[in-house]
Amino acid sequence: MVINTNLAAENSAQLLMQSSSMLSQSLARLSSGSKITSPADDSAGLAVSMKLNAEMARIDGATNNVGNATSFNQTQDGYLQKVSDALNRMSELSILSQDVTKSPSDLSLYNQEYQTLGKFVTDVATKDFNGVSLFNGNTLSVTVDSDANTFNMSGINLANTTYTTATSDTIDTVANATKALTDIKAAISQLAQDRASIGANIESLSYYNSQLGTLKNNLSAANSRITDVDVATESTQYAKYNILVQSGTAMLAQANSMPQSVLKLLG
After folding, report:
1. Which of 74, 221, 261, 266 has its CA 20 to 30 A from that of 9?
2. Band of pLDDT at residue 267, cut at 50, 70 and 90
3. Taking every pair of C-alpha atoms in the chain, what is the biggest distance, in angstroms?
4. Residue 110 CB-density burial (10 A; 0-12 exposed, 13-18 middle, 19+ buried)
5. For residues 244 and 263, what is the distance between their CA atoms, to the nearest angstrom?
6. Taking CA 266 as the corner, what is the angle to CA 264 and CA 267, rounded to the nearest 5 degrees?
7. Domain 43-227: which topology?
8. Residue-wise pLDDT tens digits, 105-123
9. What is the distance between the alpha carbons of residues 267 and 206, in angstroms, rounded to a whole number?
10. Which positions ≥6 away from 64 have C-beta within 8 Å?
């Protein structure tokens, strides 16, 4: 029996240190809710998780872009609904002005209203959305995924000749009213095409938005399997290591008391 080197105590201390380390790790996992509390826990898993988190952040950005583009189109259509009302009334006025029973003063009143509505349509062409023109006809490229791929959103041009010709007409005579009616019908036809383009834009953006939502959910589920702790399993591990620490502490105390038995030999 030796007293300078207490191998039993050293072994017990080493095992206790290991159990204490595992207990601390288990406690950290339970308190954080994550299986990876340091790179040493799962270096490869951490690398994959970081890339997944970065991609999900980019998806959030793309989702915001798609949402803003949808609002842009909805704003366009809101204005065009009023333009449609204005053109419909202008076409009605052009018919009323062809009534042979109307006096020149009547035609003047009709023409006044026609010009006012034409000015309204012309004014709508100057509107913008957060500083971006709504109706200059430019095609806008919307980022629709985490790799910055884009969807080309068709532009609407309220300043094209189909609209400007109709809004610049007069209906102060039967001849002018006849010409105005032809031009207004062309403008209404163009407006129908433009609103159909906006509808197609909104529909496409809706599909992209759904696609982004599905992709993010799947990436989040994959990331969860890598990083999120299983509380039930980890609680079992915690209980195990807690018992080992307590028993290891008791055994270390017992091992440290063993050299005292040498005193009985000396006595």
Report:
1. 266
2. low
3. 141
4. buried
5. 31
6. 65
7. f41 fragment of flagellin, N-terminal domain (1.20.1330)
8. 999 999 999 999 999 999 9
9. 92
10. none
54-71 residue pLDDT tens? 999 999 999 999 999 999
Structure tokens at 197: 């383009």
**253 or 175: whose pLDDT is higher?**
175
Alpha-carbon distance 5 to 259, whole Å?
A: 9
Question: What is d(CA 145, CA 68) in angstroms, rounded to the nearest whole number?
Answer: 14
SS (H, E, C) the chain: CCCCCCHHHHHHHHHHHHHHHHHHHHHHHHHHCECCCCCCCCHHHHHHHHHHHHHHHHHHHHHHHHHHHHHHHHHHHHHHHHHHHHHHHHHHHHHHCCCCCCCHHHHHHHHHHHHHHHHHHHHHCCCEECCEECCECCCEEEECCCCCCEEEECCCECCCHHHHHHHHCCCCCHHHHHHHHHHHHHHHHHHHHHHHHHHHHHHHHHHHHHHHHHHHHHHHHHHHHHHECCHHHHHHHHHHHHHHHHHHHHHHHHHHHHHHHHHHHHC
Please give the single-letter amino acid code of residue 206: S
Give the pair of three-digit tokens for residue 101. 């029973």
Whats the size of the chain, residue-wise?
A: 267
